[in-house]
Amino acid sequence: MSNDDRKLVVLLVDDSLLIVDKVLGLLQELENIRIIFQASSCSEAVTIVEEAEPDIVLMDIFLGGRISFELLKILGEKYPSVETAVISNHAGVRYRESCKKLGARHFFDKSNEFRLLVKMMSEKK
């Protein structure tokens, strides 16, 4: 097994180019990540999950101008081995609890928890 085979395949799902650029910039600094795919919608994300089989999906729950838990539901039902982490401005207790119930293992507030996201990702093997 090559060194690259042990590195993570990540899917970032967000429709904000500003956030995508920020997260990509942070993740590209990490040595344990092999490749990062990007999607801006639920349907794009599902296609990438089916084809690339990522280790972890980093996703917003606000896509296309509305809150949607659809992607979390699909990942939980069809791809339970794919780890999910939500990154959202909608970080109230209600949203956090809903995401956890649907299988999100992590939840990060976009406004102030990027450092925690990077820490979590750097500790992944």
How would you describe the overall organization of this protein?
- 26% of the residues are buried.
- It contains five helices and seven strands.
- 39% of the residues lie in helices and 25% in strands.
- The radius of gyration is 13 Å and the shape is globular.
- It has one domain: Rossmann fold (3-Layer(aba) Sandwich).
- It has 125 residues and is an alpha/beta fold.
- The strands form two sheets. The chain has a five-stranded parallel beta sheet with strand order 2-1-3-6-7, with helices on both faces. It has a two-stranded antiparallel sheet with strand order 4-5.
- A hairpin with a 2-residue loop joins strand 4 and strand 5.
- The mean pLDDT is 93.
Helix content: 25-40%
Per the principal axes of the C-alpha atoms, what is the gross shape? globular
Q: Proportion of β residues? A: 15-25%
- The CATH topology turns out to be Rossmann fold
Total domain count: 1
CA(first)-CA(last) distance: 14 Å
State the CATH architecture.
3-Layer(aba) Sandwich
Radius of gyration: 13 Å
Number of strands: 7
Largest sheet: spatial strand order: 2-1-3-6-7
Low-confidence stretches: none
The CATH homologous superfamily is named Response regulator
Q: Compute the average pLDDT.
A: 93
Total count of helical runs of at least 4 residues? 5
CATH domain class name? Alpha Beta
